Sequence to fold (107 residues):
Amino acid sequence: MTEPHPALRLLWEPPARPTRGPKPGLTLESIARAGIEIADAEGLAAVSMQRVAGLLGHTKMALYRYVPGKAELVALMIEHTAGDPRPRAAPPGASGSPSGRTGWPPS
Fold:
């Protein structure tokens, strides 16, 4: 079995808890939200590590402790926007979609 790509580990594995040093000041969620805020206001081309770090009140180099680069930042933004890809349980009382299909979420 091969090791997953580092970007996949960043997106889908829980972050490692540091055992020493200062307490982490950022979360992947807050970083993704800041990137989305910039993209919503000015477009995806305006998103940069520098802009996201500035919006969060940190330096660009501090941001690189959490996200290796812009490609991974954009992937985090997409994951945050798309939500959790795991199947969800049907809400109580749901028996299927109006089209007669069963399962949740309705397609």
